[in-house]
Amino acid sequence: MENILIAGANGITGKQIVNLLKASQYFNPIAMVRKEAQLNQFKADGVETVLADLTKDLTHAVKGADKVLFAAGSGGKNVVEVDQEGAKRLMAVSKMAKVKKFVMLSTMGADNPQAVEGMEDYMKAKQNADEYLRSSDLNYTIIRPGTLNNSQGKGKIELSEKLNKQGKISRADVAQTLVRALHDDAPNNSTFEIIQGNTLIGEAMNELNMSVN
Which pTM does this prediction carry? Predict the structure, then answer.
């Protein structure tokens, strides 16, 4: 089983990712959390943890990790230091640790920050993090979902490198897509957008894989 470090494990989407990985026969989750108090809930569930802060040195966090999944966010409070620079810090140490893949939870609109009124700073931070990852020499997948909601997951999405339309998607389906991206046969070195749709997640990703290879 591959060890997967999840940055943002304590978030709403992050917790769903941890649960999916815990139930997987392929992956072992390592929950990266920022506060001591957050460790106990994961330890109680038998999930490995590591205490690390995206605004500080992260060298220790990636030790033993085969792949990294970035699902962290500042909630708009510190977008440059967390969403941008924190992501870049984790990429840098991941590269040094020779992790096999870095999966990034980004957002639709990150390719054109000025078009999203009121969220330009956040979108710019996500754009900068995405561009840094693409130029890092790490094997990567960048996933850009539409507007997130807490609806029940359907296991079906609409996926394209550029959808050219807006849409919603459940956090549950985003979590499933992120976990699917960790597999070796998932699209590598690619960026794509997702919203709710009618195609099974695995099937949609296989179709993308065939189109880019």
Answer: 0.95
